[in-house]
Amino acid sequence: xxxxxxxxxxxxxxxxxxxxxxxxxxxxxxxxxxxxxxxxxxxxxxxxxxxxxxxxxxxxxxxxxxxxxxxxxxxxxxxxxxxxxxxxxxxxxxxxxxxxxxxxxxxxxxxxxxxxxxxxxxxxxxxxxxxxxxxxxxxxxxxxxxxxxxxxxxxxxxxxxxxxxxxxxxxxxxxxxxxxxxxxxxxxxxxxxxxxxxxxxxxxxxxxxxxxxxxxxxxxxxxxxxxxxxxxxxxxxxxxxxxxxxxxxxxxxxxxxxxxxxxxxxxxxxxxxxxxxxxxxxxxxxxxxxxxxxxxxxxxxxxxxxxxxxxxxxxxxxxxxxxxxxxxxxxxxxxxxxxxxxxxxxxxxxxxxxxxxxxxxxxxxxxxxxxxxxxxxxxxxxxxxxxxxxxxxxxxxxxxxxxxxxxxxxxxxxxxxxxxxxxxxxxxxxxxxxxxxxxxxxxxxxxxxxxxxxxxxxxxxxxxxxxxxxxxxx
Length: 474
Prior knowledge:
Elements: E1 4-7, H1 11-21, E2 25-28, H2 34-39, E3 48-51, E4 61-63, E5 68-71, H3 77-82, H4 84-89, H5 91-98, H6 103-108, H7 111-117, H8 125-130, E6 134-139, E7 142-147, E8 152-154, E9 157-158, E10 165-172, E11 178-185, E12 196-205, E13 208-217, E14 224-225, H9 227-233, H10 240-253, H11 264-283, E15 320-324, E16 327-331, H12 339-346, E17 365-368, E18 371-374, E19 387-389, H13 402-410, H14 419-432, H15 438-444, H16 456-473
Parallel strand pairs: 1-3, 2-3, 15-19
Antiparallel strand pairs: 4-5, 5-10, 6-7, 6-10, 8-9, 11-12, 12-13, 13-14, 15-16, 17-18, 17-19
Helix pairs in contact: 9-10, 10-11, 13-16
């Protein structure tokens, strides 16, 4: 899928490669969209991937002295959900990030990548646009600042030049007199693309709305403002009549299409419904910040930056040196594969499975530098210098892990194909939360699909493993 792959650790290296390769190069951050698209033949012009995941400081979230929040290009969706700054000063963004994919996807997928992908259904664009975000774009030629409102030209089209990267996302922290929320409608609770999404930010003077921003996603080629609804809300009190009228005006802004996921009329109607829900939530004085986890990151997230040389398909290729289940591996081949294929076909560890190859089923879940990820979406060279754990390595000294034992005892296996992925998600959940609630268990395995068991035995097995661990600790 690619001919060269660079694991970089310095900004100058990123900009230098972008300048040298132009349209032939593409930034690799989380890869949760890019790898799938390349598998399907998109980005045929791309021969070089530039992996920025080890550039120090690029996963930083900070609040400056002027009250501006800054997100680096490697800030993931789970980083935002976990961040006290985002939760306190940008709750709509935290809520949107929690709606993205599954825990494994949120561990890899970045907010900057979500913006650059430029799908009008992407979750983070609506709240960031509502909060007045700007993008700092950099290249070897210099820097420019683009308001997010001006970044999009159409579906999957932006003003980003081939040699540029989004270096920072900057937006004002919400003030004490501002209220905001994010609402999304999907076809299911997890791993769902938006049929419609919306964000609303209100600036209040007591009970009166002084300023209003309403953004709608998945109802037009780009994220749009419901301008009539925004204007109507100014100097109004949020009573039921005002909310209903503003929601109806927001519906008029939608320019939806018919497709296999929903009709235009349904999307338009749901625009009205979601805006109404959001305004009622604000009127009720609710500040709904999503639960922090589960993140499937264990006790500590690892961002291992280091002195990484170019790893690619040049002749001869640089070896991929990695650690899998505590054992050092050196791969002279497999650079063009995914991490899943490297593990299965080069290392011979076949516990991790490929069900969908698109990050939907979770059968390929492994731990990469301490985080649960979908190995089918990670390029093999990202394993260079990394620590990887597969289902073969979760036990100790030849003994099964308590989760594995619980799956056997509870009969949580039928065909067994999906079982390694469920085990990996459960193991990481119990590292993070030894006494999870059933809701936390459901969330932790939301990225894992099973066609056989109906999930009841799987949930029981995870509860049993947690209880057994508690008894053992006692």
